Each structure stands twice: as structure tokens, then as C-alpha cells.
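If you are new to this repository, start here. Below is one unmodified record pulled from the training split, so you can see the exact layout before writing a loader.
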Amino acid sequence: MLFSYVSLYLFLASTTSAALHHLFVGPLFTTPFLYSIGFDDECLTLEILKNQTVHAAHSFITFDHTKRNIYGTSLSGGRDFASYSIVDSSTVQLDSLVKLGGNCTDNTVFAIQNPEPPYVVYGQGWPSTCGSVMSVDANGALSSVIQNFTYAIGSGAHGAAISPDNRFLYSADLTGNAVWRHSIEPGTGMLQDEFRLEAPEDSGPRHMSVHSSGKYLYVLMETTSEMAVYSLNGKKPKLRGSYPIYPPGGNVTQFRGNTVALSASEKYVWASTRSGGDGTGPGYISGWELDKYGAVKKQVVMVPTTTVLSRGNGVSPAFFSDKWVAYADYGTGYVQMWRFDAKNETMEEVARLDIKDGGCCSNIIWYD
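And here is the target side for that same chain:
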């Protein structure tokens, strides 16, 4: 049975939301901490609720399908995928470490869980041709590598997405400049029958999201700082259009695309680009309105970030409302909350929390 994110959104929207929301964020490099953050949507404040020392600096974290576990990767912690059980809304406990399979000795960069039994987890090394399919135990903790898979020579996959019907795993191959598709074997979650689709020249696919309609795939291009939209109706994804994440007339060499993510209702898609080059300007957060199938209708907002030369600036929309978009900055080191006004198509910063530990901050995940 397909998991409906839109149904979850409608249910949550019909209930009274709590004023305090809990989020987790980790550092991009160096510092082995995991922060629990509280966001008060009435007082419009962000605060650190807890700072835990964990196995490594987790450049990417993600929940399992039940939100009882967090899986973490590391660009500075070796080949490990880390698995933590969530004790409460502010506390985690390390349960297991699973090493990237195969002959690769690379760091780990991304992980995503298959939401159907047996709930395997797909992981990617960086910079690497290697990927791993990992089993989980009865509690959702990572158990072991059950399949190694490879991309092509020169590949470096940096993100992935699973189709809503659970038939395919799509991968963003940043260094190989390609989009990959692997078939998912029903009942086991194993991967097979892959193909590679060349991306536009020197575009650099970095991250991706897929619409719950199953009709569109959004690919964040790092080098060209664009959101590329692929239709999924045919035998292979087909590029339908690309949308810059920086202002008209801007010099593309001054930016580096970072993340792309759908809003709670999937009526909007968000993307961010970092400032680069000579560091004299900001990055940008951009948003587009979508139709019910996921096709882009129009751009609704483009706002500059509040710092320049950010090495990372991920956006994380709330899963329960289109209003809130969390933002993590690595370089200066802070977490922000942005409020989106859909009626007036405006966006404003409402809260900021500085975390100057030398490594923060990487991606943010919303617990409640």
C-alpha cells in the first residue's frame, strides 16, 4: 500500500498543532554532536534543548519510516552508517554501525529507507562508485549489508529518492553528471536492472525529490544552480524544464546549488543555492507552486540568504504545514526558521539560533 504524504498532511492540518516543535540537526564536519532544537511557533523562537555527543559528525541524518530511529552518514567518520534509536524528542541512543560494503573505503553521504517491508535502507558512499543495501532489525536499527551495488567509474552519487509505488530508486550522480534508476525487487528491497541517464552538460545532480503522484522528479543541479524537473511517465525520465535558483542576470559561477524538497501539501517545492566564487553575495532560497500532479505552475518566491559564502545551506520544509521552512547554514553556523505567506507569496526570517561549534550546521529533520 502506498504511503500518502498528502493524506498525512491533511490529517495533521485538521488537528491543533503544538506550539513547540522538535527538530534534529547535526554538523557538516568535525564536531561529533547532534542537537535537538525547539521551535516555538507562537513566540517565534529557536533554542537548543539538548546537545549529545554521537559517533561522528553526521553530515546527513534521516528518520526511518516510523520516526523511532535516526540514520546518520559522515564525511569525516569513515565508512560507517550510524543507527540511533530515539529515546524521546530530544535524546538518541547509538544502536549499531554498519560499514559501506564492497571494496570502497570512502566516507558515507546519504541514506534513505524503503517504506515497505522488509524496510531496507539504501546508502551511498562519497566520493564513490559504491552503494549498499542494508537490513534492519525488528526495532528498525541497521543490521548488516545484504547487497552491494555500484554506479559507474567516475560516479559520485550524493542523493536519492524512491518512487511512490516503491518500484524504483533514483540517484543523483554529482561527479558522474547523471541520474540513475534502479529497479526495486518486491519483497526483498534488493536493487536490479539499473540504467544511467546523462544530465545536461556540467550540471551536477546533487539531491532530488519525487512527487507523490509519481509523475515528476525534481533534481537539484549543483554546478548550474538549477532545479531540473523530469517527467516519469515514460520508460525513462525526461527533462521537462530547468529553473534557476539565483536572480536573472546573475553569474552562475558565483553559486552552487544545494538542496531541493517538497512542502507538506506538495503544493510547493523549495530549493537552495549557496554563494560561491568571490564570496561577495548571498545564496538564495527559491520556491515554486505546483499543480496537483507536480508540474511547475509558477515561481512564488526567491529570497537571499543572510550570509555569504556558505558551504552548506539546506532547506527543510515542515511535514505538517506549508508555512515553515527550516534552514541550516554551514560556514557561519546557525539554524533559521522562515515563514512563507502563500497568499502574498512572500517569505521572511522569523527566528535564528547560532551554533558556533566549528562544524554546524548540516541538514535538519523535523520530529514533530
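Two things worth knowing about this chain: Helices lie at 5-13. The first strand starts at residue 20 and ends at 25.
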